[in-house]
């Protein structure tokens, strides 16, 4: 009997505490489950973890698989878009004025030296419009630094040509190997329709003036054309032969999400798009032009090394521009892992060519 008394008391005590204990367990259960998950993740292999949110695309570990080679990538040829600002409004532009940021000159030079030390042989300055910053002086200082101080074999610039002045050639032309001028049509009305026009400047007439200056100051002359809905039927053969550029780079109009298509884009380029078949028809029509270098969209997306205004490599493999971390913060070897760059595709498309004016043996 005396044994049953404590049991009865214990039963009543447990009954009285059952409800508070249930409430306490309900409160503690989520915390215990969270602790269990946290301890498991800490012990798990890093490759099994999901990348943390909030980082820019292109910096996660999963992006490293986009690389093409077994060894480290070499930034042999780099396209540095140091500004996004432009005085033209080309409807298909795929590097638009989403920021107004430009690195201080000393920081840009530091990054260029890092690239040289990592194996860079050619630098191409682009934009936006590169002559817009400080009326071309910023660009000129970078061109001179890369040729004179870094001793790069090739220094080139891509421009719409509207802001180039002869005095710039007089100051910096000796340090520049190639000047590429973007011209999509030899019909001025078409250029205006595309958005490649400004005020009283005739784009085609200006192109011929720049050609003369390049000859006078011994800078190799190049033409870039984007083939799109408004110029795909044009015959440019005689015009290109008259200009006689060292290269005529012919691009297929390219869609980049967030730049000229989709959410956050500053352009709507869908109306400019042409098919592969239409692009090929244009190439067939101009096949007799010996300096023609064609580039369809498939060739472009992973065979270029592109640096943005923050000196971040831009990975275009997924149809958008996913940035790496800046080479100024993590170095070239680390940042280039997330560039999506395919060295084999770069070489296959003829990315490495005679690009130093000292080797071109031109008839100036």
UniProtKB/TrEMBL annotation:
<feature type="region of interest" description="Disordered">
    <location>
        <begin position="46"/>
        <end position="74"/>
    </location>
</feature>
<dbReference type="InterPro" id="IPR026372">
    <property type="entry name" value="RSAD2"/>
</dbReference>
<dbReference type="GO" id="GO:0005739">
    <property type="term" value="C:mitochondrion"/>
</dbReference>
<keyword id="KW-0472">Membrane</keyword>
<dbReference type="InterPro" id="IPR007197">
    <property type="entry name" value="rSAM"/>
</dbReference>
<keyword id="KW-0479">Metal-binding</keyword>
<dbReference type="GO" id="GO:0051539">
    <property type="term" value="F:4 iron, 4 sulfur cluster binding"/>
</dbReference>
<keyword id="KW-0411">Iron-sulfur</keyword>
<keyword id="KW-0051">Antiviral defense</keyword>
<dbReference type="InterPro" id="IPR051196">
    <property type="entry name" value="RSAD2/Viperin_antiviral"/>
</dbReference>
<dbReference type="GO" id="GO:0051607">
    <property type="term" value="P:defense response to virus"/>
</dbReference>
<dbReference type="GO" id="GO:0050778">
    <property type="term" value="P:positive regulation of immune response"/>
</dbReference>
<dbReference type="GO" id="GO:0045087">
    <property type="term" value="P:innate immune response"/>
</dbReference>
<dbReference type="InterPro" id="IPR013785">
    <property type="entry name" value="Aldolase_TIM"/>
</dbReference>
<dbReference type="GO" id="GO:0003824">
    <property type="term" value="F:catalytic activity"/>
</dbReference>
<protein>
    <recommendedName>
        <fullName>S-adenosylmethionine-dependent nucleotide dehydratase RSAD2</fullName>
    </recommendedName>
</protein>
<dbReference type="Pfam" id="PF04055">
    <property type="entry name" value="Radical_SAM"/>
</dbReference>
<comment type="subunit">
    <text>Homodimer. Interacts with IRAK1 and TRAF6. Interacts with FPPS. Interacts with HADHB. Interacts (via C-terminus) with VAPA/VAP33 (via C-terminus).</text>
</comment>
<keyword id="KW-0408">Iron</keyword>
<comment type="similarity">
    <text>Belongs to the radical SAM superfamily. RSAD2 family.</text>
</comment>
<keyword id="KW-0391">Immunity</keyword>
<feature type="domain" description="Radical SAM core">
    <location>
        <begin position="72"/>
        <end position="292"/>
    </location>
</feature>
<keyword id="KW-0949">S-adenosyl-L-methionine</keyword>
<keyword id="KW-0256">Endoplasmic reticulum</keyword>
<dbReference type="InterPro" id="IPR006638">
    <property type="entry name" value="Elp3/MiaA/NifB-like_rSAM"/>
</dbReference>
<dbReference type="InterPro" id="IPR058240">
    <property type="entry name" value="rSAM_sf"/>
</dbReference>
<keyword id="KW-0551">Lipid droplet</keyword>
<dbReference type="GO" id="GO:0005789">
    <property type="term" value="C:endoplasmic reticulum membrane"/>
</dbReference>
<keyword id="KW-0399">Innate immunity</keyword>
<dbReference type="GO" id="GO:0046872">
    <property type="term" value="F:metal ion binding"/>
</dbReference>
<keyword id="KW-0004">4Fe-4S</keyword>
<dbReference type="GO" id="GO:0005811">
    <property type="term" value="C:lipid droplet"/>
</dbReference>
């Amino acid at each position: 009997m005396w044994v049953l008394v404590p049991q009865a008391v214990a039963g009543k005590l447990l009954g009285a505490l059952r409800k508070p204990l249930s409430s306490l367990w309900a409160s503690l259960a989520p915390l215990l489950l969270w602790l269990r998950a946290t301890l498991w993740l800490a012990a798990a292999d890093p490759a099994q973890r999901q990348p943390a949110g909030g980082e820019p695309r292109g910096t996660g570990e999963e992006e490293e698989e986009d690389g093409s080679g077994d060894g480290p990538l070499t930034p042999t040829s780099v396209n540095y878009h140091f500004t996004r600002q432009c005085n033209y409004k080309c409807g298909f532009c795929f590097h638009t004025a989403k920021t107004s940021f430009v690195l201080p000159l000393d920081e840009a030079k530091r990054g260029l030296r890092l690239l040289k030390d990592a194996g860079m042989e050619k630098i191409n300055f682009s934009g936006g419009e590169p002559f817009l910053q400080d009326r071309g002086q910023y660009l000129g200082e970078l061109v001179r630094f890369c040729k004179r101080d870094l001793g790069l074999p090739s220094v080139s610039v891509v421009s719409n040509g509207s802001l180039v002045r002869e005095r710039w050639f007089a100051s910096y032309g000796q340090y520049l190997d190639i000047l590429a001028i973007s011209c999509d049509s030899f019909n001025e009305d078409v250029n205006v329709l595309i958005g490649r026009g400004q005020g009283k400047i005739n784009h085609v007439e200006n192109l011929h003036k720049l050609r003369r200056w390049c000859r006078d100051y011994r800078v190799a002359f190049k033409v870039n054309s984007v083939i799109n809905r408004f110029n795909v039927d044009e015959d440019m053969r005689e015009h290109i032969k008259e200009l006689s550029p060292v290269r005529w780079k012919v691009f297929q109009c390219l869609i980049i999400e967030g730049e000229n298509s989709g959410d956050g884009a500053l352009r709507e380029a869908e109306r400019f798009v042409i098919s592969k078949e239409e692009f090929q028809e244009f190439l067939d029509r101009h096949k007799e032009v010996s300096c023609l270098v064609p580039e369809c969209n498939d060739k472009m997306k992973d065979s270029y090394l592109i640096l943005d205004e923050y000196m971040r490599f831009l990975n275009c493999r997924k149809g958008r521009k996913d940035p790496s971390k800046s080479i100024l913060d993590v170095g070239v070897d680390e940042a280039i892992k997330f560039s999506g760059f395919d060295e084999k595709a770069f070489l296959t498309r003829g990315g490495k060519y005679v690009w130093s004016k000292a080797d071109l043996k031109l008839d100036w």
